[in-house]
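Forum > Structural Biology > Help requests

Title: Can anyone predict the 3D structure of Putative cyclohex-1-ene-1-carboxylate:CoA ligase?

Hi all, first post here. I have the sequence for Putative cyclohex-1-ene-1-carboxylate:CoA ligase but no way to get a structure on my laptop. I'd be grateful if someone could post the structure tokens.
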Amino acid sequence: MNTTAHALSGSPTLWELLRGRAAASPERTALLQGDRELTFAELHDRAERVAAGLHGRGVRPGTVVAWQLPTRIETVLLMLALARIGAIQSPVIPYCRDREVSFALRTARAEFFAVPGAWRGFDHTAMARRIGAAGLFEAYTELPEGDPATLPPPPASGTQVRWIYWTSGTTSDPKGVLHTDRSLIAGGTTLAGALRLTRDDVGSVAFPFAHIGGADYLVMQLLHGFPVVLFESFALPGALAEYRRHGVTMAGGSTAFYTLFLAEQRKRPERPILPALRLLAGGGAPKPPELYHAVVRELGCELTHGYGMTEVPMITMGSPEDTAEQLATTEGRPPDGMEIRIVDDEIRLRGEAVCQGYLDPAHTAEAFDEEGFLRTGDLGRLTPSGHLVLTGRRKDIIIRKGETISAKEIEDLLHTHPGVADSAVIGLPDPVRGERVCAVVEQPPGAAPLTLQAVVSHLRSQGLAPHKLPEQLEVLDELPRNEALRKVLKYRLRERFA
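Reply #1:
Sure, ran it for you. Structure tokens for Putative cyclohex-1-ene-1-carboxylate:CoA ligase below:
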């Protein structure tokens, strides 16, 4: 995409993007939260004063600063202030607790740690003291400020590692993923180019800003100069008033967000719950084709879904210019500068948005092949038009009597059943089959109880091969999910039902 080439020319920094946007659109609204509002000029000036305050406390270029903050204006200010200094920042999802936080701080060798104090019933300051965090300070409503004249020059290049993000660590310790401003800008530029956004759009962030999607979104905003509404916590129907109040035109986050909006719309199908909404967009989890069609039909907006990961924040993205079939069944196309190679069904990646590796050199050596392509562990194929179709993950493949079964294929078909709100298909140990297919479903309110026989009958009618049919059905009130993008935690289901 041309925007990618333009944004990456000369390896700009995140701070340069902010400085350029503040000069081009000083009076335009940048951030909205409740009754608070900042223009791009105010965002720039306040971030620079916060940078001076942090510098006065000893934060220097290359200093590692970890922060565990909710989605607030102060969080964006802190992120930009650290970018102004040229510090190395390590965002930590605010729902992580002692073990994960201690591991992240220790492994990254963080010299400072910013927390929100007591937030949503949990005392982050007390936790930080328990684990012996260095340079502890609270940054929920107040940030240190100083005279920008005391600051050194801003970073001159976006090619140095200045970000340490963390993988989910659901089955082992998380991995510290190394990013540069350049790789994050490449991801955000891809997203902006695919969605065809304009300065007249009103965006929204309802997921943790500490997720790598936060940086993606900030880059996209700075490139196009549109306002963004921040949600400290996302709960429906409570958040709908803020979406309507600010006339949000683009919402989303992940598949679970689409489902939640759809459930609210079905409570009052006679009129749109978000009249200004023109686009739902997101990624982070597979999207069943039936969910795409339901969103377009019932919410009356477009849905574009993408593919990304902590190591590569944006790999492909659906575009409003794609056909309905492409939007429903693929994850979109890669931008210029992103190479996708399929090796033994595994997706491998090389390009500007790919991380520099991991904190642990052994993880880096294992993750990249001899030609510098990142092994994703995801399985997929490319269509003749260049669109990517995800078919599952290596660890999500079920081997039943020697036959390979894709969990995603069964999940997509389960979503076509009216009695299924969401599903997860897992393989469970079986002494005869090796693994047996288990479908775990979440039902919509008021749905008749599902039986294994009814599920099997439905899947047969959809043409699923007999050897792929589930042999076990579990119905839960709610599937276990993480707190970032609401991804289903299949390892918990395997532990529970094995």
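The two ends are 47 Å apart (CA to CA). The domain at 401-497 is CATH 3.30.300.30 (GMP Synthetase; Chain A, domain 3).
Shout if anything looks off.
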